[in-house]
Amino acid sequence: MANHVNQFPDLRRPAGSLPGKLYRRALVDSFLKLNPRTMARNPVMLVVEVGSVLTTFLWLRALLGQGEAPAGFTGAVAAWLWITVLFANFSEALAEGRGKAQAEALRHTRQETPAKKLHRRLDPTSSLGGSRLTQPRNRTDYELVPSTSLHAGDEFLVEAGDVIPADGEVIEGIASVDESAVTGESAPVIRESGGDRSAVTGGTRVLSDWLIVRVTANPGEGFLDRMIGLIEGAKRQKTPNEIALNILLAAFTIIFLVVCITLLPFSIYSVHVVGKGTPISITILVALLVCLIPTTIGGLLSAIGIAGMDRLIQRNVIALSGRAVEAAGDVDVLLLDKTGTITLGNRQAVEFIPLNGTSKSELAEAAQLASLADETPEGRSIVVLAKEKYGLRGRTLTPTPEIPAGMRFIPFTAQTRMSGVDLDHTSIRKGAADAIQKYVQSCGKSIPKDLDSIVEKISHEGGTPLVVARNGEALGAIHLKDIVKGGMKERFARLRKMGIKTVMITGDNPLTAAAIAAEAGVDDFLAQATPETKLALIRKYQEGGRLVAMTGDGTNDAPALAQADVAVAMNTGTQPAREAANMVDLDSNPTKLIEIVEIGKQLLMTRGALTTFSIANDVSKYFAIIPAAFSSTYPALNVLNIMGLATPQSAILSAVIFNALIIVALIPLALRGVPYRPLGAAQLLRDNLLIYGLGGLIAPFIGIKLINLLMVALHLA
Amino acid sequence: MTANTWLQFAVYIGVLVLLVKPLGGYMARVYQGERTFLDPVVKPVERLIYRLAGIDPAVEMNWKAYALAVIIFSVVGVIFLYILLRLQGLLPLNPQGFGAVSPALALNTAVSFVSNTNWQNYGGESTLSYLSQMLGLTVQNFVSAAAGMAILVAFIRALTRQQTANLGNFWVDMTRSTLYILLPLSFVVALILVSQGVVQTFAPYQSVNLLQPSSYQQIKTNANGVPVKDASGNPVMQTVPLTQQTIPLGPAASQIAIKQLGTNGGGFFGTNSAHPFENPTPLSNFVETLSIVLIPAALCYTFGKMVGDTRQGWAILAAMLAIFIFFLIWAAHFEQAGNPALTQLGVNQTPSALQAGGNMEGKEARFGIADSVLWETATTAASNGSVNSMLDAYTPLGGLAALVLMQFGEVVFGGAGSGLYGMLVFVIVAVFVAGLMVGRTPEYLGKKIEIFEMKMAALLILIMPITVLGLTALAVSIPAGTSSVFNPGPHGFSEILYAFTSMTNNNGSAFAGLNSNTSFYNLTGALAMLVGRFWLAIPTLALAGSLARKKKIPAGPGTLPTHRPLFIGWLIGVIVLVGALNFVPALALGPVAEQLIMIVK
């Protein structure tokens, strides 16, 4: 049934979209977008389109001999105005194109699949009515229905080879699932009921075993559906900052509209009182208008936004709202889970510290024996350390003369908080200091005085002490150390430069937390964190007016994720965590937050830089167009033609052509984003003002002059 | 430019900057309700006013209530002033027996003074009674300035407070502005002016014999006022002897003090501060010129003090001063350079021991180019509009300085209060774009600039150019507008543009050369003044309301600093690009074309 899904796409490498195809498609789209209803989303470019229609009309009239200006000139202006609109549309289409290709690939996986919907068996005698299942679910009692008919609350069965028909929560079974459709990661993941690995995504495929899943999303509202919508940009909502910027741009457009409209009576009056020349032509007025309104930013604004989302997708992060991407740029406080983010996921034994009267090797041997059956990474690291440091050979669980088969392993439980092994006459326990202390006391033995100091010393160093006891007598402690990931200190320093405070969240005690915090170089930490304290911490920062970002994966993270301004859920996380977050990291890499923040900042910077550039451009355009426009009435104004443009008509055309070409020239910048460097705000402003402000002032003078020279060289002037 | 000019400018700016901190600090205390040295005298009066008016000074207003209070107060002001002007013939203190002011002129004048514009389509000494001047105009000179200052204070509070709807109490802010700031300052300035010879009297106008009697020719009319014509149809001329002169008097000093301090500008006499009874000496001239920008400049410091970071106030003042000084030097340069048309005729216009040089047309000899240009720049930078020289006679580019300073939207000093709140809107626009450039959604003083703020800011920067350009376009398109123009060519265009620029920006400065006492100009002018004042005041208060509701975000290294030279430079750039760029085409057809025609023949 799932045979049509041959290869799941990796989001980072959009399948089947050669650059050439992407461009061709964008080209077609830029014409389709000429539809005024589409253009209405962008008031600046709508004005240009109306101008294009108007000048085209004037050109047709000129061809019929009723022109206000030579047909060739009006026609050229009209053509370049159309090109301006098309260039702007092209930028948007190009930005969307990549997402479209990705969305299409995803859509393949979402094609209708048959679903094995389970029948509910209701207990007719139940006092609770029809809401309770009385019998274990019967895995054979299902009917095949189309996946689109599944609704939230329904239950279905998936077996090896099936495509999971809808998003849901595993309620029974365990299976390996290929989630490359959403993550791009080909290694299968385990999904099982309960705990943090119970969420499955529609469109992914079960590789082995079976699952019974309860549907959590109605048709069309699943994770994949939302992802497709987001990637495609079809449901793209303008973000608050984008709307605010659009308002500013619309205001500029209205002002310049009034400037140009009133220029006609001004010009008629001037011609009347001076008694020579002709009033400014509509063609020139439209050209002036298009040159003055912020077409550069207006044309590229939507591409910048789409490209920002796309840059996230390139990093395998799906933003469930554009607002969150913007907010990411503003983040002041970053909450990071210690385990897995700042430190390697598991602690490692680094030292055995015996009590007085116990030798190191004695302790090491006891520790190794107690850990043989301990499959946790910590347990294995104890075995390895004992072997490497004290030459104790690695032992296995296969019975050998040394280790008789009578070994009985005591597993870790939440109640005892110890694990260990019972031999013939020996019983060894290892566990948290207080747990072992209780155990020792219960055996009627006393606790050696120096144990406390050893435990404390390990805690101070940021380690976790595991105390080992043999036959009720404490032997010493194992120093389990959190290994801080490489390069973290530098990353946090970088964040500090960006003005972002990092806070480490850990369940450790304050002593251990402080030591790791210092080693990792975070600004602050929250020790012995619970869902409540996490939530309280976020609220506290927010009340102080700060924006908080955090990552999480567990269900107990969900309240904090929902409260945080930027919440990134790991894709391996639970459904509640993913629901509460506004971004999902498909790589489940918690340090991704740093990149997300940078992308958010880049997005805002690109908008600001191009707005500045666009407005600064106006100065040169006045110098190009004003002397030309009034040359017949006030020839003296030619003094302002500081660029020395050949003829009035060539001056105006040069400005219009520059205005169109600059959009294309800046498409790569809009798609790539202004590079962000973690510098202080003052320095960033200085750099960007120099490049885009001063550059925006000067560049068009040069550009317009060059275009004009070219026109003269081609005898077009 | 001469050394003397440089020196005068330097002294002026030096004294101004020295006064900013003491006055600004004092005003901050007044608005924060702290004790001042005037409390023993003024506090009882203040309390009495509240008791009589039934105002509870502790009650705060949200932005809508505040705006409503501003509007009600202003509407009542317009109605009262209109009635007063219409009825002045029946009222006392009218020694010259002036009759009622015509309806269109009364409306224009009432709106003009209530909106702090003081555009005058009349000559004070030939139109208004002493009562109208004192009870009507002088009162509005005080309270219109106080209203502007009150709106500013509400706006500043919005930036300092968080998560509240309360902006303060308009009646309290206005009363305190008047009692603690405007009245005491006016009192001091009026006394200085009287000491210099400015008149302050209820005596009727005096007739004196001319030292040198003369005569003039006049068309002879019959009993019905119809010109008598000779046989060939030409009017018959008759010689009229001239032996006496009427010297107008009145309570001028008290009105001039507040006219300057409250960025009003409406002269007691028609020729404003060029009149020797308004502005007799270089010292009175200095004090009056200083008074023009004193309060708007000092309010920058008040702002910094109230938001808890005086650097923010100094930064804004620095931006204002930079633009001011640029145009001061610009105007002085073009005036001192003289008329290019005369230069081409070989006329010597260089300053020497015997002549001031440059363009002295329309300037008082006792002030010269330096003091005239200084006044011109100050009066148009601040939205004052009083004059001590004839702007119409400036070189086109010298006069352009006055025009452009108003076209910035009166934010370089601007009106008392209104200038700074206008400037803060530009700051918000500047912060919005610059904030993006540092990779954060923009914020100013910890307040996020979001959709609503941009809507209001956009509205605020839109209204002025649309009104100015729209009305100018209307005026040049219909005979009612063009028939008032006395000068042909680009100069006439400049005059119309100047009139609407001045009225919309509530400046009131007149270029002259345009007969604006017509129904068309009286009514369109009244409209422009109302729009310029209240269509800006209301969105400003709405903006304040929205800002007050927001949380304040603490500053960090990622926050855009808004007090450094770089930001000041950017702010100036935004004011120039957003404020003045809109007028480039119109300016090209007016003063620029006019000057260039004189140079390029």
Structure description:
The complex is a heterodimer of chains A (717) and B (601). Chain A is α+β, with helices and mostly antiparallel strands and 717 residues long. In chain A, the strands form three sheets. In chain A, strands 1, 2, 3, 4, 5, 6 and 7 form a seven-stranded antiparallel beta sheet that branches. A seven-stranded mixed beta sheet of chain A has the order 8-20-19-18-9-16-17, with helices on both faces. A six-stranded antiparallel beta sheet of chain A has the order 10-15-14-13-12-11, sandwiched between helices. In chain A, helix 4 (71-109) packs antiparallel against helix 6 and helix 8 (282-292) runs parallel beside helix 21 (648-672). Chain A is 50% helix and 15% strand. Chain B is mainly α and 601 residues long. Chain B contains 20 helices and four strands. In chain B, helix 3 packs antiparallel against helix 4 (103-114) and helix 15 (451-477) packs antiparallel against helix 18 (519-549). Classes of the chains: A alpha+beta (717), B mainly alpha (601). Chains A and B meet through helix 7, helix 10, helix 15, helix 20 and helix 22 of A and helix 14, helix 15, helix 17, helix 19 and helix 20 of B.
N-to-C CA distance of chain B: 26 Å
Q: Largest sheet of chain B, order of strands side by side? A: 1-2
Low-pLDDT ranges of chain A? 1-10, 122-134
What is the largest interface, and how many residues per chain? A-B, 80 and 69 residues
Which stretches of chain B are poorly predicted, pLDDT < 50 over at least 5 residues? Answer: none
Largest sheet of chain A, if any?
7 strands, antiparallel
Question: How far apart lie the N and C ends of chain A?
Answer: 67 Å
The percentage of residues in β strands of chain A lies in 15-25%
Beta fraction of chain B: under 5%
Radius of gyration of chain B: 24 Å
Number of DSSP E strands of chain B: 4
Helix content of chain B: 55-70%
How many H/I helices of chain B? Answer: 20
Global mean pLDDT of chain B:
92
Q: In terms of structural class, how would the helical and strand content of chain B be classed?
A: mainly alpha
Global morphology of chain A: elongated
Q: Assembly state here?
A: heterodimer
